[in-house]
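User: Could you go from structure to sequence for me? I need the amino acid at each position, not a summary. Structure tokens:
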């Protein structure tokens, strides 16, 4: 069972969601939002986000962290602030020694809703359905859970693919050994002589070549 922390970065509201997954199904552990007051200085807002993310990582001990790539339609000023918040999230993950996986927003929506241009309300509904929640999570928390689900889906599919490849290779090796065994039973297997047997053969040849006395 793997635990994934999904983070939806925002300069005012940062959503987070923690799920457990076995590569096929997901179970919700917790979700929430970190609210940084717009009246505070931006460095203070970053510190609040940083402190809360550290607390979440320490409390829930995730194995992986999943975040969305920056959506490039936002204006330059917003993108800059969003990038700084993402930097805080990446730093917190690095401090904890956690691998970070980044996914494009279109891919996250496609993974959860099946449509890359889905509305936020559709993401909320699908997250609620997939995790069996009693109520709709807020938009930012739903986005965080969605990116966690996206990572669970992709890492699970990759794991199954690797297992299939390993099984296929193992099967081919087993088939080769079986074929060799069958040949051996029929007396058609190539003779594998050891160094000792080759030496004994050489000694026998030398003995035949020695002149006889008498």
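Assistant: Here is the amino acid at each position, in order:
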């Amino acid at each position: 069972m793997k635990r994934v922390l999904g983070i939806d970065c925002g300069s005012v509201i940062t959503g987070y969601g923690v799920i457990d997954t076995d590569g096929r199904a997901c179970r919700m552990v917790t979700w929430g939002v970190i609210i940084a007051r717009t009246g505070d200085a931006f460095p203070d807002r970053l510190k609040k986000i940083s402190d809360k993310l550290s607390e979440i990582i320490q409390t829930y001990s995730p194995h992986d962290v999943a975040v969305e790539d920056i959506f490039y339609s936002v204006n330059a000023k917003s993108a800059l602030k969003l990038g700084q918040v993402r930097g805080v999230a990446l730093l917190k993950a690095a401090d904890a020694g956690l691998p970070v996986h980044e996914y494009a927003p279109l891919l996250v929506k496609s993974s959860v809703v099946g449509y890359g241009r889905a509305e936020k309300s559709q993401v909320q509904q699908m997250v609620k359905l997939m995790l069996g929640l009693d109520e709709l999570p807020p938009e930012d928390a739903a986005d965080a859970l969605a990116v966690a689900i996206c990572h669970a889906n992709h890492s699970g599919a990759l794991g199954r693919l690797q297992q299939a490849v390993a099984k296929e290779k193992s099967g081919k090796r087993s088939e080769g050994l079986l074929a060799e065994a069958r040949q051996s039973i029929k007396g058609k297997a190539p003779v594998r002589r050891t160094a000792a047997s080759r030496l004994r053969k050489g000694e026998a040849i030398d003995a035949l070549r020695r002149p006889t006395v008498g």
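One structural detail worth keeping in mind: The first strand starts at residue 2 and ends at 8.
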